[in-house]
Amino acid sequence: MKWPLLSLIGICALTACSLEPRHVPNPRLLPGQALQTSAQNAVYNRRRGAVEFFVKDNHPRLMAEIERGGGPYLDEAMAMAKVPPASREALKLDLRGDRRLYATSPDALVVTLMVYGS
Question: What is the pLDDT of residues 91-102, one digit of tens each?
Fold first, then answer.
């Protein structure tokens, strides 16, 4: 009776040694991953706060530039959100297409900038 049970445990142990990605991380790496995630979140939150302040402080100017298809304030907002240069024209088109939403909700504009940002 012991051998079938030991065989089953051995098979389960071997299948756990897969090179495929898995959901459960290595428990020994969790403290380091927690610190890394905390640091990344702090950097993101600081950048998002700066973008939010800039957007709310310059909202009328940004809306005018979105209507025109671009300008220095919109360029600055995209730079602050770290939108890659290759994505900026697509972002301008998206912003212009949903300008009514962004005219009434500066927060939506901030979210869109941060989603396009890297």
Answer: 999 999 999 999
Q: What is the DSSP letter of 25?
A: P
Quote the pTM value: 0.71
The CA distance from 60 to 90, in Å, is: 21
Q: Where are the alpha helices (DSSP H) in the chain?
A: 2-16, 30-57, 59-68, 72-80, 88-97, 99-104, 106-116
Q: What is the pLDDT of residues 59-104, one digit of tens each?
A: 999 999 999 999 999 999 999 999 999 999 999 999 999 999 999 9
Angle between helices 106-116 and 72-80 (to 10 degrees): 60
- CA pair distance 64, 102, nearest whole angstrom: 11
C-alpha distances (whole Å) from 44 to each of 38, 52, 81 are 10, 12, 10
Q: List Cα–Cα distances, 38 to 33, 35, 47, 72, in angstroms.
A: 8, 5, 14, 33
